[in-house]
From TrEMBL:
Official protein name in the record: SSPN protein
Source organism superkingdom: Eukaryota
Pfam families reported for this sequence: CD20 (PF04103)
PANTHER family: SARCOSPAN
Chief site of localization: membrane
UniProt organism field: Ceyx cyanopectus (Indigo-banded kingfisher)
């Protein structure tokens, strides 16, 4: 009853409670949905890249980054099933928020690594000179150098189609992983701000306003 009277007497308190409820319960829905869609896209595209040639390295087919982002999104959906209580009074709620924050940070690192690996491979592909030899695509950075490294792509009947398709997949991987990294970064920022920044602002400014009111009365 006292809480209801406070919320009725003070409309700002009611607005603050609604904003905390919205930020604590509804915000994971948008981010978790984006993470799930992006994670599935990155994972499927990574397995498609692995099917092009059996000689592609794991770092060049970053389905692992998509799987991590999918796991993060599932934790975000679990958060929606937990009833919100202010000031994190439940251990389960605090634990889920901490796990979601840490996994989002891990997803951010994984997506950044995936962008770096795919960007490096794409830059190499733009400088390759490739020839099809016995159902393998052999590419070199410098034809004039007899000791130069040769990159071999197995199971490639047509070298031109393989390089063009692989370039397209690498560009898509860079774009999707970059967006996934930004979404994970936004999750970490929102959760950090909701947990700490709002708390410190309240502690700093409320005593100052109270002191100013006493000075005005004097």
């Amino acid at each position: 009853k006292q809480q209801q009277q406070k919320s009725k007497g003070d409309p700002k308190a009611g607005q603050e409670e609604e904003s905390h409820t919205c930020c604590g319960c509804r915000f994971p829905l948008l981010f978790a949905s984006l993470q799930l869609a992006l994670g599935i896209s990155v994972t499927v595209l990574g397995f498609l890249m692995a099917g092009i040639s059996s000689s592609l390295l794991v770092r060049d087919t970053p389905y692992w980054a998509g799987i991590i982002v999918c796991v993060v999104s599932l934790v975000g959906f679990v958060m929606l099933c937990i009833s919100y209580q202010p000031d994190e009074k439940t251990c389960v709620q605090f634990t889920m928020k901490l796990i979601y924050f840490l996994l989002s940070a891990l997803g951010l690192v994984a997506c950044v690594l995936a962008v770096a690996f795919t960007a490096h491979h794409y830059l190499q592909m733009t400088k390759f000179t490739c020839d099809t030899i016995l159902e393998t695509c052999q590419c070199k950075l410098d034809i004039a150098d007899p000791l130069g490294r040769t990159f071999i792509y197995q199971d490639a009947a047509d070298c031109d189609s393989l390089t063009s398709m692989l370039n397209l997949y690498l560009l898509l991987q860079m774009a999707l992983n970059l967006i996934s990294a930004l979404v994970c970064l936004a999750v970490c920022f929102v959760m950090w701000k909701h947990r700490y920044q709002v708390f410190y602002v309240g502690v700093r400014f409320h005593p100052l306003t109270a002191a100013e009111g006493q000075q005005q009365k004097v």
